[in-house]
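Kindly draft a sequence, keeping tokens residue-aligned:
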Amino acid sequence: MDDILDIAKRVLKIEADAVSALIEKLNSDFEKAVGIIFSSRGRVVVTGMGKSGLVGKKIAATLASTGTPAFFLHPAEASHGDLGMVTADDVIVAISNSGETEELVGLIPFLKRFNVSLISMTGNPDSTLSKAAEVTLDVSVKEEACPMGIVPTASTTATLAMGDALAVALLIKRGFKEEDFAFFHPGGNLGKKLFIKVKDLMHTGDALPFVSPDMPMLKATVEISSKRLGVTIVADSDKRILGIITDGDLRRGIEKWGKAFFDMNAGEVMTKNPKTISEDELAVKALSIMEKHSITSIVVPDDNGKAVGIIHMHDILKQGIV
């Protein structure tokens, strides 16, 4: 029996070669396919049976997430009512290695009748599907990775890679940016980085710890402990920020002055001009400031210098913003 690792290496080599061979197959047809989709006023409808259908679902998902509206249409369901989802403004991308898949070929009369643009992705450029299409993307492979040559392996990998090439070419042509990707992925890490603002995470109202500059440190320590943010804002009667005291300041003060520390007032201990950030800034920027200055929280002032919030590093990290 062949060594398992040798088998795996052979499979990967065959599939890598299949993808690499696509480079030589790229020509003006690919450019035309990109142009048809780019100029379309509708959506890209990807369709395919079996393994081709599974690949088609991924291609449709990639297109949709990179600025090209797309969805997958099961060809068997299409002829039983789902063709009603297709409009004359749409573009069909039909995937079939043989180009003779019965369910796909059966859609051709409908597409021709309503003048729907058809792009085929097939391993047989002389097939019925290819001849009916406006443009064909050749995804033929020299061999499948399966030793029997019948299980779709290298062919599906090549098709998937061609779909990625199509999606990336379109996103670049559209000027698709990181912010656009995040818009379609608000729940992902990138979306969180680009959409969650300081005001979405900061502590406000009664959750904010405040002390006056003449408050004894014994009472200030109680305020820091009770609000559980590891910090208190030192402010005047209008809540304008004068300084900040952290739990680190407490430890250092006790080490330096002992019991006498608790007879000092907050104004003597506070750090003046603490780091602040606008509530409209991104939370990821607040995290960057914290990391740069080795602090765990930042005060949020309003336009008049009054404290309206505190954002803590733990609140940011809990959101997965890293």
About this structure: The first strand starts at residue 44 and ends at 48. The chain has a mean pLDDT of 88. Residues 235 and 242 are 5 Å apart (CA to CA).
